[in-house]
Amino acid sequence: MSSDAESALLAIAAAVLFALAATLWQRATLSLDEVSFKKPKSFLLLLLSWVWLAGLVAQGIAVGLQAAALDRGPLALVQPLLVTTIVFALPLGYFLTEQTVTRRHVLGAFVVVVGLALYGVYGDPAQGVNDAPNNEWLAAFIILGGLCWALLLFANRGGPSTRAAVYGTVAGVLYGLSATLMNSVVEAVHSEGWDVLTDWQLYALGATGIGGFLVQQISLSYGKLATSVSTTSVVNPVISIILGVLLFQETLDDDPSWHRLVAIAGLALALIGTAVITSASEKAAKEEEPEAPPEGLPAEASAA
Fold first, then answer.
1. Coil vs helix vs strand at 296
2. With contact defined as beta carbons under 8 Å apart, do 136 and 180 qualify?
3. Half-sphere exposure (Cβ direction) of 251: Cα atoms closer than 13 Å
4. Do 229 and 78 touch, CB atoms closer than 8 A?
5. Phi/psi at 251 (nearest 5 deg)?
6. Which residue numbers in the chain have pLDDT < 70?
7. Peptide bond preceding 40: is omega within 30 degrees of 0, i.e. cis?
8. How remote is the C-alpha of 187 from its chain's centroid?
9. pTM, whole model, 2 decimals?
């Protein structure tokens, strides 16, 4: 089996466990009134839930599989496959947290799979360099940090679905940056051994990973599993691919040239599939909302 094939299988296995972790975490967060940075105690309460701890174990194993996948293949191959997290989250959400799964959800999942298949077959991502200059890393931190800050300013506006999407997007940005750092750390382990403990990338990896983890808990607490997971799963690889191209000089197959176009179209199709899943969740949520009573008529009277 080729290294790319091993990398792909490891990435898909990681996606399954990421989906399981997200579903278990959502089940745990729904038992609390609120999960917020304004209430640090809410994060401590999660530690008392065996369901949340089971999700933490699943997440830890998934991160290990992701690191193994990045050790065998480029970011541009591994990270897009993690979009399948939303595909696996749909049945898990249905059975574990009673999420509504409609035909549009299934259609969106099918589109995601087809898009990723096209990307994998025709993209054939090639590994670039193992690291980037510190000034380029600094520029990436400043730009992505500013993006996260801007998103968090509007995080508490809108309904639960909007808030889940905004926090999910921030988590995806942090996870994408974390995966890019992981790529450097994994390569450093091979070349430096224990000296990797002196590299700043290792500690930046921990900081961005923990930051994404905490923000994801808030996103999941709004009860919109598909919306939360889809935004995180889409933004994560998009950020990783952009950083992989800009920092690590990774490329897609261009022999013949139309291969690259098909690969990009396949990735775009996968992103469209996630948008279909998100919109399906929005529609299902609206259909489940009870109708408001006519103006001037008490709710009890309208119910009668």
1. coil
2. no
3. 8
4. no
5. -135, 160
6. 1, 127, 281-304
7. no
8. 23
9. 0.84
